[in-house]
Amino acid sequence: MSALLISGNDVAAAAKDRIRNEVEALAAQGRALGLATLLVGDDPASRQYVGYKHRDAQSVGISSIDVRLPDSATQDEVFAAIDELNERDDVTGMIVQLPLPEGLDDEAAVERVLPRKDADGLHPLNLGRLVLGMDGPLPATPSGIMAMLDHYKIETAGKVAVVVGRSFLVGRPMALMLGAKGRDATVIQAHSRTADLASICRQADILIAAVGRPEMFDASFVKPGAVVIDVGTNRTENGLVGDVAFDEVSQIASAISPVPGGVGPMTRASLLTNTVYLGTLT
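RESULT FIELD:
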């Protein structure tokens, strides 16, 4: 492999050291922090991911509150669980683990979370603040990616960034953050239905792949020397793989994030960063 490996594990470890110090400073002021998760159903991947979040929280001194509902939960029952967490004084930040089981409304559940407890940074009010360039909790995955780029001193100003994906979790806020004043990338927002997607992607100095299709992005999508960030997490019979054909693309990219060990740990670190930020508001 010729490309620099962008290790989310390494960046997350450094971030957690900083967060641990911030948590201790807040504790000295009498401010205890708590991160709550709501998991509906028993999807193995979601269950594992929630477990990682609680482990990370506890490792930096943030208490964790784990609430679970069965697959049979109704929308009203999901709302009631969110309302209860909104009212708890020991909950500084909270997340609803997405996606919810079929038949439940992800966006309505996210909107039910109080903006001042939105550790995912996905509430419409907080996304609106991002659009306007105002302070607020940032969407966890995009802010984690920005932290990875910063850690490895990958410049965004003046670069062409292609973001493939348009979800409110990753693609849309990612494009906003890369194009924001001070970041100053020229951003192309693409998606799986973009005509001649490979040629669009080959324009990228920074390529963000977030479509959820195993190893869709091979070398034909990548300009030699590009930085490639793989957001995909796809479970296959051969194990966990990203959206990028890692072995092939790593031969022509200048830097690339792996799956696992790339974006995932930084998403979780961003949840902790947001929980600390929200704790300063109370």
